[in-house]
Amino acid sequence: MKAIHETVFMSALRSFFVALFGVLGALIALFLVVFALVGLFVATEDKSLPSNVKILPDAKGKRKELASSAPVILQIDVKGKVGEGNLTGEKVEEVLLDSREKDFKKGRVKGILLNINTPGGAANDSDVIYRHLKTYKERYDVPVFAYVNGMCASGGYYIACAADKIYASDSSLIGSIGVLAWPPFLNLADTLEKLGVKPLTLSAGKGKDELNPFRPWKEGEQKHYQKIINFFYREFVAIVSENRQIPVDFLVDEVGAEAYPSPKALDFGLIDGERYTRALVLEELAEAAGIEGKYQVVSFETSSWWQQLYQNASQNPLITGKIKHELSLPNLEGYPLSFY
């Protein structure tokens, strides 16, 4: 009799959970259908601009959508760490390509505003973004102005050198023309020895095992990496010298790798004006671009809200059933040298 009661109880419990998960499944399905309908409605709205285009305020603070023939100033936000999020060479290239396609293929973009607030970042992405901007500027003969509202340091300044003019707010910091190997090299040999751990690294090729953190380092072992850092530093200085018309010796001996308030940066020739606002920079950019009358300021979003939603959901432990415990530095993976 006891067994029968247990069987009935388990059957009832099973039925309860089946019904519960059935209801939850139906609710989730309903939620997805509503989401899809909302997305379809948004996608089919009558707009002259593509869905990935965002209208930004012009110099007068207006952001009303204008006719499809109106001239356009493209704003590219150089914010956060270079090499992360939308601030990669690939993402910026995508934006530049979009600015010459579809509704913009008839040369509507007359100028580019770099809206900068970054401490720097990956050396490779800084260089790639700089070269994409230089190529675009020369190919389409459009002016590029940079506006610093906060920080334009290291890799950020490297990118800003692609601009014809660099202006800054009164509270900005500019400069930090240097190269840093990050994260720093650590030697764990003594610690491992105290723990009784004896690691063995197998390698082939001269120098392949240089600065191995699991063994004592040899004298001068860092020389090869220092040469690489020196090479990137010389390239950085050459870029600044060429674009800002500042002698190399002055950059190395006087300016150095420090960041400076905008008045001092102006004295050094790192920028073209201080105490600027975005509106004032837009006015000068529009004039340099030969724009008369009304114009549209836009930015391009490189990923839709659907893509962002899917990406976030695909990484949610409730969806994947997995919880990761890790220390991750994505902006540094594969890019050991940083302009910081």
Describe the structure.
The protein has 340 residues and is of the alpha/beta class. The chain has a domain at 53-183 and 245-307: 2-enoyl-CoA Hydratase, Chain A, domain 1 (Alpha-Beta Complex). The chain is built from eleven helices and ten strands. It has helices spanning 2-43, 89-98, 123-140, 155-160, 189-194, 223-244, 248-255, 262-268, 278-288, 305-314, 317-320; strands at residues 53-56, 72-82, 109-122, 144-153, 165-168, 173-175, 180-181, 259-261, 296-300, 337-339. Strands 1, 2, 3, 4, 5, 6, 7, 8, 9 and 10 form a ten-stranded mixed β-sheet that branches. Helix 2 (89-98) links the parallel strand 2 (72-82) and strand 3. Helix 2 (89-98) runs parallel beside helix 3 (123-140). The longest helix is centred in the first third of the chain and has 42 residues, at 2-43. It starts with a helix and ends with a strand. The model is unreliable at 41-47 and 324-336 (pLDDT under 50).
